[in-house]
Automatic annotation (TrEMBL), chain A:
Source organism, top-level taxon: Bacteria
Alphabetical UniProt keywords: DNA-binding
Single annotated GO MF: DNA-binding transcription factor activity
Native species: candidate division TA06 bacterium
Keyword presence, DNA-binding: yes
Record keyword DNA-binding present: yes
GO CC terms, sorted: cytosol
Protein name: Rrf2 family transcriptional regulator
UniProtKB/TrEMBL annotation, chain B:
Alphabetized UniProt keyword annotations: Signal
Signal sequence, start to end: 1-20
Species of origin: candidate division TA06 bacterium
Domain of life: Bacteria
Protein name (database record): Lipoprotein
Length: 399, 213
């Protein structure tokens, strides 16, 4: 891991302040002597740390500096501990942190929230986390991959509590006939099954009630010369793991290699008895017989990306007795990749739901990659009743 | 609690000048390795970065060998380069390695297929969305690189596009005049790629041919 000199000295300074246990203010001269850092450099550093409210200053003959909160340091050291074990050429390890805020206008009332979607949804909240990919190899090459992606988020729907969240948590075994995975992964249905939406504000249809972003179970994947086949048998409970007679069988077959031919066309089907869950919170219902059929397409051309998806879904509710509810949804996302190295992305996403719960949603989104690690994203979401503006600062750093 | 999260983020933001982490993997390695190395039975993936192996001093040496500065999101010291060693059972057949390179419409990804001595067998564009540059994907374009090594590319100046010597690089024909910027970017990407493979996999066997200007 490469840490900038400024960050390293800042951390050393904060560790020394923590050592004083908040009982006294530590003069800058004392820090400079202990840490062997020039006073001039330190004086610039403390200005930055004070600006970020990590330390505070006291004036007078016994003046100096102390930490604003020991919790900040504890959290930082936990991150440091994680990074210390991350070296290795067969492993990728990333740290992640994000700040999210949204401003909503609903029925004439304005409110500020600390999440990007609904309070119970797992996607984006202020959080810290990590993303691990570990490969296993023998003399003849790779034979397995372990992927773990987890966060601790600040969840306002749980009385300002912290919520641990698990996204990827699977082991993939590579064999001649294809790859098999076991654990918590994307079920094989639609555009959502191969889109990396982990840190993004803009979300696919799996986050709007059409399937699950992640589910517990097993799956199979095989590439063909032009296209691939993906199958999965999962619990149909989404982010949490529950076994109450619920299950979901899914499959997607595609034509076209997105990387070589700049297009991919997919056909998906899914059937099972699903549990209704919002994020990690289960709804008090029995498993619901659910069937879905969908088709999706991606086309890349110059700076443009076009994504189109259509899904038909039918759910059979027990109450009222055996009532069928059919929904049809059309999804379109247009992306413009702008500036050098595609630093700026502008996107328009439309979602039209027809049927029993018909509505429409227009989303305008922008993302600017400030550095390779840090992205600033924003989104305006307009539906029949609400308008919301969402902002996110997202940090993703390889160790 | 909210303040703690925001403060942590602010602390982390202190380190964002680190500039890291735009890697370049094969998107479908099982399929791609079989296609690029017919007869192969497996591959082993390794991640390496300049900062991990040698830090800033190594970055400077690599820039000197390239004859240009590393810049932007794609060329930081922390970029995790993904190296594929390709096997037939336990026999090493060669290597595949890709780099990101700034192209006309954002980034292009250029993979080299090399034998165990670092000689190019062919090259493969993974990401290339420019319609005008689609001819660069043709096998006939990739074949022009077969047999070339870093020794040849040392004579090629990636900034001016000129070659001092045998003209083996400037003899490579651009199949699409409208895609001149992507063509130039591809040549720079190939030289950068060869230097990184030499540094990370071949034990710098081509360093002896490097002649500083």
């Amino acid at each position: 891991m490469k840490i900038s000199t400024r960050s390293r000295y800042g951390l050393r300074l904060m560790i020394q302040l923590a050592g004083s246990n908040g009982k006294r203010l530590v003069p800058l001269r004392e820090i400079a002597e202990t840490q062997q850092i020039s006073g001039k450099y330190l004086s610039r550093l403390v200005i930055q740390l004070r600006r970020n409210r990590l330390i505070r200053a006291g004036r007078g003959t016994n003046g100096g500096y102390t930490l604003t909160s020991k919790h900040v340091l504890i959290a930082f050291l936990i991150l440091g501990g994680l990074t210390a074990t991350s070296y290795g050429s067969s492993r990728l390890f990333y740290l992640e942190a994000q700040a999210v805020a949204s401003y909503a206008n609903s029925a004439g009332e304005n409110e500020i929230f600390w999440y990007s979607m609904m309070p119970g949804d797992p996607m984006q909240k202020p959080s810290i986390g990590f993303d691990l990919l570990q490969r296993f190899s023998g003399e003849g090459g790779d034979w397995g991959i372990l992927a773990i992606q987890a966060r601790v988020s600040y969840d306002t729907s749980r009385r300002y509590d912290l919520e641990p969240q698990l996204y990827n948590a699977y082991f993939k075994l590579k064999t001649g006939p294809g790859d098999f995975w076991l654990g918590h992964n994307k079920p094989s249905f639609g555009f959502s099954s191969y889109l990396d939406n982990h840190g993004t504000l803009l979300q696919p249809l799996s986050m709007y009630g059409f399937g699950y972003d992640r589910d517990w179970g097993a799956g199979y994947y095989r590439d063909f010369e032009s296209g691939n086949l993906a199958l999965s048998a999962t619990t149909g409970s989404g982010m949490p793991l529950y076994l109450r007679g619920n299950y979901m069988l899914s499959g997607r077959v595609s034509k076209g290699d997105l990387n070589q031919q700049n297009y991919n066309l997919g056909l998906s089907a899914s059937s099972g008895k699903n549990l209704e869950a919002m994020g990690y919170h289960l709804m008090p219902m029995d498993p619901t017989p659910t069937a879905m059929i969908g088709t999706d397409a991606i086309l890349l051309s110059n700076r443009w990306e076009n994504r189109l998806e259509f899904i038909w879904s039918r759910k059979t509710w027990n109450y009222p007795q055996n009532q069928y509810v059919s929904d049809y949804v059309i999804f379109h996302r247009l992306t413009a990749n702008l500036l050098d190295e595609n630093r700026l992305k502008l996107e328009v996403q439309n979602r039209w739901m027809l049927g029993e719960w018909g509505n429409g949603m227009l989303t305008l989104a922008g993302s600017y990659q400030i550095t390779a690690d840090l992205a600033l994203r924003s989104m305006v979401e307009i539906d029949d009743e609400n308008t919301r503006v969402i902002a996110q600062l997202y940090w993703y750093h390889k160790i | 609690m909210k303040q703690i999260f925001l403060t942590i983020l602010a602390v982390l933001a202190l380190g964002t000048s680190l500039f890291a982490a735009v890697g370049c993997d094969l998107n479908d390695p099982d399929k791609d390795v079989k296609r690029l190395f017919p007869g192969s039975t497996g591959y082993k993936t390794e991640y390496v970065s300049i900062s991990q192996k040698g830090g800033d001093s190594l970055l400077v040496k690599i820039e000197q060998r390239l004859g240009d500065k590393f810049q932007g999101l794609f060329e930081t010291g922390d970029v995790p380069y993904t190296m594929y060693r390709v096997f037939r059972k336990k026999e090493l057949l060669g290597y595949i390695h890709g780099v990101n390179q700034k192209g006309q419409y954002g980034g292009i990804q250029v993979f080299l297929v090399l034998d165990t001595a670092g000689v190019i067998k062919t090259l493969y564009f993974q990401k290339l969305t420019s319609k005008a540059a689609s001819n660069l994907r043709r096998p006939s374009f990739g074949k022009q690189f077969a047999g070339l090594t870093l020794q040849d590319f040392y004579k090629y100046d990636v900034v001016s596009g000129k070659e001092n010597g045998a003209d083996r690089i400037t003899a490579i024909k651009n199949p699409s005049a409208e895609a001149a910027s992507d063509f130039m970017a591809a040549l720079r990407a190939v030289k950068k790629n060869l230097i990184l493979v030499d540094e990370f996999l071949l034990g710098n066997r081509y360093l002896k041919y490097y002649r500083p200007n």
